[in-house]
Write a structure and sequence with these properties.
Blueprint: E1 2-8, H1 15-24, E2 32-37, E3 41-47, E4 60-61, E5 67-75, H2 78-87, H3 100-108, E6 118-126, E7 131-136, E8 145-148, E9 154-157, H4 160-166, H5 175-184, E10 198-199, E11 204-209, E12 212-217, H6 231-249, E13 256-259, H7 264-277, E14 281-286, H8 302-312, E15 315-320, H9 323-328, H10 330-336, H11 346-358, E16 363-365, H12 370-374, E17 386-387, H13 408-415, H14 420-428, H15 433-439, H16 451-456, E18 465-466, H17 467-492, E19 497-499, H18 505-511, H19 516-519, H20 527-532, H21 539-542, H22 553-557, H23 562-569, H24 574-577, H25 585-593, H26 601-616, E20 620-621, E21 626-627
Parallel strand pairs: 13-14, 13-16, 14-15, 16-19
Antiparallel strand pairs: 1-3, 1-9, 2-3, 4-5, 5-6, 6-7, 7-11, 8-9, 8-10, 11-12, 17-18, 20-21
Helix pairs in contact: 1-4, 2-3, 5-26, 6-7, 11-17, 23-26
């Protein structure tokens, strides 16, 4: 695990610039640094030592030195690839997983990425053809950002702040990204908060040859081959693929731990990991003094997790959270999230990563991905058989899952009358377009696209949407942009590596073949996953409904965190000075906070994060003002 950064240019780039880039993200790799310098490329990496701690220094090369690799991540099928490559005559100088990449490129050319089961951001230089390749993993676990240079070159890094640290491109704020933030709580890729920086999409690589940049998508080389009309085969394959994925993802030369909530996803991962390792650290976040609320339900899952940790014999750690401890993590969240990211549950992930580091646990397994891949969210059970994408007379009301003035039945009925894009917003997301217009300065945001349509742009279909379309949309957007981004950034904040076994390339390929009825039956989600592991999990876990971890943000904003809201909407805030919010926004924010019809805590927290992030930026000319 590490971070990578570099510049490819017609003109020589000083090594000092790359050094600044690496220093800005030293939390990703505090153990070592490595550099690769040529006439037209200056690239570096900072390393978090996980495998072959003593010998895994980068860059990696092939036997002749004609192929050079720097990378960030883990290649889980490296042992299998190493065996195949040795049989073809390749030799290795370490046990480090990343060393297989250069040799695999010799055998497969650009198609080498299709053979990698892992999470990664890769830089590869082919000296013979004088071309460079940047590649990102299939699930989108590891980030990679880049900006084009006026000379035709490129600056790239694992984090946006590293590109800023290089100081070689001028940056301006992306107004559409700011507008989208209160709806999603994050910026949808491939865009970022800056107009000039782009995220390399997942399952994509770019080739830079003679300073021409070509972007190409790819797929995993292996595909499941079963009869998908046979329910027994589906269940058996699900079990096999998850077991194999966990077995590969516990490979480490340093201690391994796992998130444990007491739900089915984390319980599967922890059970399998404990069987593989013998000794496993498990971690649970505890909000002991918080009551249930109308939207999230019961907040503290630690008693369930403690009981199950005793069952599997793990060394369990309960991480106690409070409004004070979470507030102390806010500055760290702002810095390590890299761009505005307002998913409050990230504070819980950060707290667990901090606890893991304190116990010298440098790898954490997570259950993320199971809900999107196997139909786990409760609202999937209430999706209509079909939903229109377009209408001449669409419903305009903003009823959503957070409308607490209606009963659950009334909410479900109202949401089903929305068009498909608005249904996705109503079930899963936050601020409506009208909510944002009441707080944002309309002049600043003129001419932008409705946020719910931004995600649906990539699914331009004239036909009606069926139930699976909604689930696939979550797999394509919500999973990589929120869940996987959260795990990567919040664990790396404390130099801990988060691994998500459910998003292995083979499992992703497997679920593409599943139908709605394979996932959801009789108001129960994740059917094939539950049945696949029914023999090793207690019945109360197998039958337990979905329950996520949530911060009581509405309550805290009405009490101890109230000063953050005042700071955000006051006349001296960064949002106000830049003209992003208007004069009456403070009064409107208070009305939303105390609303008896809808929960707005997450929306208001998003504005708080935006303001804190803007305040932390160095002095950058933004076209419409200067952030000080």
């Amino acid at each position: 695990m590490c971070g990578i950064a570099g510049v490819i240019s017609k003109y020589p780039i000083e090594e000092e610039a790359v050094g600044k880039m690496l220093f800005s993200m030293r939390h990703r790799g505090p153990d070592d640094t490595g550099y690769f310098l040529t006439k037209n490329a200056s690239v570096g990496m900072c390393r978090l030592s996980i495998n072959d701690v003593e010998n895994g220094r980068q860059p990696f090369c092939n036997e002749t030195g004609s192929v050079t690799v720097l990378y960030n991540g883990e290649i889980y099928n490296a042992p299998k690839l190493r065996k195949i490559l040795r049989e073809k005559g390749h030799s290795f100088g370490s046990r480090c997983d990343g060393e297989v990449i250069a040799h695999l490129y010799e055998e497969k050319g650009e198609n080498f990425v299709s053979w990698l089961d892992g999470m990664f951001a890769i830089f590869l230089y082919d000296r013979t053809e004088n071309k460079f390749i940047l590649a990102r993993d299939i699930p989108g676990e590891k980030p990679l950002y880049y900006g084009r240079l006026p000379c035709g070159g490129i600056v790239f890094a694992s984090e946006i702040k590293a590109i800023r640290a290089a100081g070689i491109i001028n940056l301006s704020l992306n107004r559409q990204a700011i507008w989208d933030m209160p709806t999603f709580l994050w910026v949808p890729e491939p865009e970022t908060i800056f107009n000039e920086i782009r995220a390399l999409p997942r399952s994509t690589y770019i080739v830079i040859c003679r300073y021409s940049i070509t972007e190409k998508s790819y797929r995993f080389a292996h595909r499941p081959s079963i009869d998908y009309s046979n329910e027994k085969d589906i269940i058996e394959l699900t079990r096999s693929l998850v077991e194999d994925s966990v077995r590969l993802r516990v490979l480490s030369d340093v201690p391994v731990g796992a998130f444990l909530s007491g739900g089915i996803d984390s319980s599967i991962i922890c059970t399998l990991a404990a069987q593989e390792l013998g000794e496993l650290h498990t971690f649970t976040a505890s909000l002991e003094n918080e009551e249930s609320n109308p939207y999230y339900g019961h907040l503290d899952e630690s008693p369930l997790a403690e009981r199950y940790a005793a069952t599997i014999g793990s060394k369990h750690h309960k991480v106690r959270l409070s409004e004070k401890s979470c507030r102390q993590l806010l500055d760290k969240l702002i810095y390590c999230a890299d761009q505005p990211f307002a998913v409050s549950s990230g504070l819980g992930v950060m707290a667990i990563a901090q606890e893991a580091k304190d116990h010298d646990v440098r790898v954490l397994l997570t259950g993320d991905g199971a809900d999107e891949l196997f139909g786990g969210y409760s609202w999937y059970q209430h999706l209509p058989p079909s939903a229109a994408v377009h209408s001449e007379n669409p419903a305009t009301h903003d009823i959503s899952a957070r409308t607490i003035s209606l009963s659950k039945k009334e909410r479900r009925s109202a949401i089903r009358r929305h068009l498909a894009p608005k249904q996705a917003w109503a079930w899963h997301y936050y601020a409506s377009e009208e909510d944002k217009r009441s707080l944002f300065n309309e002049e600043y945001f003129s001419g932008l696209i409705e946020s719910s349509l931004r995600i649906f742009e990539r699914y331009k279909k004239d036909r009606e949407w069926n139930r699976m379309d909604f689930i696939v949309q979550d797999r394509e957007c919500y999973l990589p942009f929120e869940m996987l981004r959260k795990i990567d950034q919040m664990t790396m904040a404390f130099s801990v590596e988060g691994r998500s076994p459910f998003v292995s390339p083979l499992i992703l390929s497997h679920v593409e073949n599943l139908q709605y009825t394979d996932l959801i039956k009789k108001d129960m989600g994740k059917v094939c996953l539950r049945e696949a592991f029914a023999d090793i999990l207690p019945r109360q876990i197998i039958k337990r409904p979905k329950h996520g971890f949530n911060i009581p943000i509405d309550k805290w904003l009405k009490a101890e965190w109230g000063f953050l809201l005042e700071r955000t909407f006051c006349r001296g805030s960064a949002l106000y000075e830049l003209g992003i919010i208007h004069q009456e926004s403070a009064e409107e924010a208070l009305r939303m906070l105390h609303s008896t019809t809808c929960l707005y805590g997450d929306v208001l927290f998003c504005y708080i994060i935006l303001n804190l992030w803007l305040e932390e930026l160095p002095k950058i000319s933004l076209g419409q003002g200067v952030i000080r």
